[in-house]
User: Fold AMP-activated protein kinase glycogen-binding domain-containing protein from Pseudoalteromonas haloplanktis.
Amino acid sequence: MLNKRFFKTKNEAEVTFEFSHPDADDVCLFGEFNDWQPVPMKHNKKLGVFKCKQRLPVDKEFHFRYLINGKQWDNDHQADGYIANNFGTENSIVNTLRIN
Assistant:
């Protein structure tokens, strides 16, 4: 799930990436917004979800994916969209279009 918060005085959005998977002990976020470098997500055991926040430029679209336990790729099932990638699967999309 994606939660977005926009700032009146900054041209960026704070996006909270939230992901759950029944077999996940470890989840990392990968995205083109950080050159596909791993961002470890924090596990909230009480809620059973992994979370992390990223500040992204507004009015853009970025591809991203989750890596579960260092070996299984998955998408955000509530992403803003999906697009085919070069590996025969799809990437999730997060859109930071500011809606006035």
